[in-house]
Amino acid sequence: MEPGENNILSLQDVAIGYWDRQHKTVFEHINLSASEGELIALVGKNGVGKSTLLRTIARLQPELQGTILYRDKELSSYSRPLFARLLSFVSTEIVNIPNLSVFDFVALGRSPYTNGFGRLEKRDKQATLRAISQVGMGHMVHNNLTEISDGERQRIMVARTLAQDTPFIILDEPTAFLDLPNRYEIIHLLHELAREQNKTILFSTHDLSIALQEADKIWLLNKDQLHEGAPEDLILNNSFEQVFRSKLLTFDRRRGDFFMPKTLSSSVTLKNPNSLDDYWLRKALSRVGVAIDTDNSRVTSGLTIELLQHEPIQCKLKLPNEQEIEIRSFYQLNRLIRQFIDS
C-alpha cells in the first residue's frame, strides 16, 4: 500500500478461471488494489478474462487460488446478506421482463434493505426514484421494460445498482449499448459518484478514450502481463502499446489514442498554416496518401494549399499550371487531390 492509499479491495496472487472436472485458469498471479472513492477502468483484449475477473470479485464464481480481501477480510468471510450491502454488480446481459416497470425493476436493488416480504419503505422508494433520476430516466419511471430501448435498459441496470447503494460497484461493459454521448454521460456519472459519494467503482470497457479521460486508475490485462496505474502512467511507460500492438495500429503517446499509419507517397506545399487546421489537414490528406512537405524531403505533387480561414475551413488549391480552385470543405479538397494524383 502506497502512502495515503486507503485500500477497500486487494487481490493477492489471485488466479481466475472456471471449475469443470478440473479447473481452467484464465489469468493468474493477479496483484491489484482498489481505493475508496476512485473510478477504475478494466481494459484488455477480448477473451483475456475481464468478465471472469469482475465475476470473481463479485463472488459470482470462486477464485482458483490466492486471496481477495475486502476491507482486510477475505470475501468468503462475509455472509451473503451483508455482502449485498457492500458490493453490487451490473452484467452485460439484457434484462427484458414482461409486465415489470422501470420503477419496480430498479427497486429490486433495495432488496438487501427490505424485510422478508420485500416491502418498500419511504426511504426505499426515495432511493429508487433518486437512482432513476441520476441516470436520466425519470421521465420513464412508469414505463414497462419491454417499452424501452437497449440503451435505456442499460441505464436502468446502472440505476438498480445505484439504488442498492453499496460502497463498491462493479459494472461489466456499462456502455455497451449506448451511443457516443450517452457513453460519456454514464461514465462521467460514475466518476461523479466516486468523487462525491466516496464510492469505489470498477467497470470494464473497450472504449479506451473514455477510460483515459475519466478513470482514476486503469487495470490493464494482457495474456501474460498486468499493468496498474493512472492513465498517464500507462501511456508514458508504453503499456498500452505493448498490450494492443499490431501490424496496423500505432499508439500516439502525445494524444493518448491509436491510429493507423498511412503510406504517404506524395506531398503538397502549405501556405498560411495554423495549428488547428494544420492538424486536421494532415489527417485528411493522409487518407489519400499525401503529406504536407516542410523540408522538401518528399516527392512533391506540385500542389499548393493556401489556408484562408478556419471553422469552417476555406482554402485555395493551386495546381502546377497556376490554376486556383477555391475549397470550402476537407471532403472537396481530398476529392480534387485524388483526381489530380490519379490522373
Question: Can you walk me through this structure?
Answer:
The protein is an alpha/beta fold. The protein folds into two domains: 240 residues, Rossmann fold (3-Layer(aba) Sandwich), CATH 3.40.50.300; 77 residues, Anticodon-binding domain (Rossmann fold, 3-Layer(aba) Sandwich). 31% of the residues lie in helices and 28% in strands. The chain is built from eleven helices and 17 strands. The strands form four sheets. It has a six-stranded mixed sheet with strand order 6-7-8-3-9-10, with helices on both faces. A five-stranded mixed sheet has the order 14-13-15-16-17, with helices on one face. A hairpin with a 3-residue loop joins β1 and β2. The longest helix has 18 residues. The protein is elongated.
Write the topology of this structure.
Blueprint: E1 7-19, E2 23-35, E3 39-44, H1 50-57, E4 65-70, E5 73-74, H2 80-83, E6 87-90, H3 102-107, H4 122-134, H5 150-164, E7 168-172, H6 180-197, E8 200-204, H7 208-214, E9 217-221, E10 226-229, H8 231-236, H9 239-244, E11 250-252, E12 257-259, E13 266-271, H10 275-286, E14 290-292, E15 300-309, E16 314-318, E17 324-327, H11 330-342
Parallel strand pairs: 3-8, 3-9, 6-7, 7-8, 13-14, 13-15
Antiparallel strand pairs: 1-2, 1-4, 4-5, 9-10, 11-12, 15-16, 16-17
Helix pairs in contact: 4-5
